[in-house]
Amino acid sequence: MKSLVTGGVRSGKSFYAESLVVAEPHVTYIAPGREADPDADPSHAARVAEHQARRPASWVTVESHDLADALASAEGAVVVDCIGDWVQWLIGELDGWDETREEWEPRFVRQVEEAAEAVAARRDIVVLVTQEAGMGVETDDWRARLFRDLLGYANQRLALECDDVLLIVAGRVLTL
């Protein structure tokens, strides 16, 4: 079973995603967009600590920006939280905030494709957590639009490899 869990910020996505694997004997929790500097965003660090506190101690946490490799080497059921954080990191890593889109977008697409192939190859449960593109404040900021566009692309591509897509709204689950 492979699921993509999407929704707005603070909608309950992570909690629900974790509930899908809580009975599994082995769970790998992949954090693909984690900031190396915990002081970079104090609110992000607080959310990470909150998430870690509610997870069983037996879960293995892997912090890796190489999502395809982390998926390929994970043991047991897998929770990836969060695709949106990974997309944001990937844009920065590819100099997407400073270079023209044509210069780096093919490498972005290749990274998403490799992650999707790694999801498809897994035989254990995979749960991908992501923000739903365009469910936030609309802005004229080009960076926000770029992030929204690329997150939407990544979500659509990864969803193709999933059996279920679940939308979380106010803690409620809608199966799409």
UniProtKB/TrEMBL annotation:
<keyword id="KW-0169">Cobalamin biosynthesis</keyword>
<dbReference type="InterPro" id="IPR027417">
    <property type="entry name" value="P-loop_NTPase"/>
</dbReference>
<dbReference type="GO" id="GO:0008820">
    <property type="term" value="F:cobinamide phosphate guanylyltransferase activity"/>
</dbReference>
<feature type="active site" description="GMP-histidine intermediate">
    <location>
        <position position="51"/>
    </location>
</feature>
<keyword id="KW-0067">ATP-binding</keyword>
<feature type="binding site">
    <location>
        <position position="81"/>
    </location>
    <ligand>
        <name>GTP</name>
    </ligand>
</feature>
<dbReference type="InterPro" id="IPR003203">
    <property type="entry name" value="CobU/CobP"/>
</dbReference>
<keyword id="KW-0808">Transferase</keyword>
<feature type="compositionally biased region" description="Basic and acidic residues">
    <location>
        <begin position="34"/>
        <end position="52"/>
    </location>
</feature>
<feature type="binding site">
    <location>
        <begin position="31"/>
        <end position="33"/>
    </location>
    <ligand>
        <name>GTP</name>
    </ligand>
</feature>
<dbReference type="GO" id="GO:0009236">
    <property type="term" value="P:cobalamin biosynthetic process"/>
</dbReference>
<feature type="binding site">
    <location>
        <begin position="7"/>
        <end position="14"/>
    </location>
    <ligand>
        <name>GTP</name>
    </ligand>
</feature>
<feature type="region of interest" description="Disordered">
    <location>
        <begin position="32"/>
        <end position="52"/>
    </location>
</feature>
<comment type="function">
    <text>Catalyzes ATP-dependent phosphorylation of adenosylcobinamide and addition of GMP to adenosylcobinamide phosphate.</text>
</comment>
<keyword id="KW-0547">Nucleotide-binding</keyword>
<dbReference type="GO" id="GO:0005524">
    <property type="term" value="F:ATP binding"/>
</dbReference>
<dbReference type="Pfam" id="PF02283">
    <property type="entry name" value="CobU"/>
</dbReference>
<dbReference type="GO" id="GO:0043752">
    <property type="term" value="F:adenosylcobinamide kinase activity"/>
</dbReference>
<keyword id="KW-0418">Kinase</keyword>
<comment type="similarity">
    <text>Belongs to the CobU/CobP family.</text>
</comment>
<comment type="pathway">
    <text>Cofactor biosynthesis; adenosylcobalamin biosynthesis; adenosylcobalamin from cob(II)yrinate a,c-diamide: step 5/7.</text>
</comment>
<protein>
    <recommendedName>
        <fullName>Adenosylcobinamide kinase</fullName>
        <ecNumber>2.7.1.156</ecNumber>
        <ecNumber>2.7.7.62</ecNumber>
    </recommendedName>
</protein>
<keyword id="KW-0342">GTP-binding</keyword>
<feature type="binding site">
    <location>
        <position position="63"/>
    </location>
    <ligand>
        <name>GTP</name>
    </ligand>
</feature>
<comment type="pathway">
    <text>Cofactor biosynthesis; adenosylcobalamin biosynthesis; adenosylcobalamin from cob(II)yrinate a,c-diamide: step 6/7.</text>
</comment>
<dbReference type="GO" id="GO:0005525">
    <property type="term" value="F:GTP binding"/>
</dbReference>
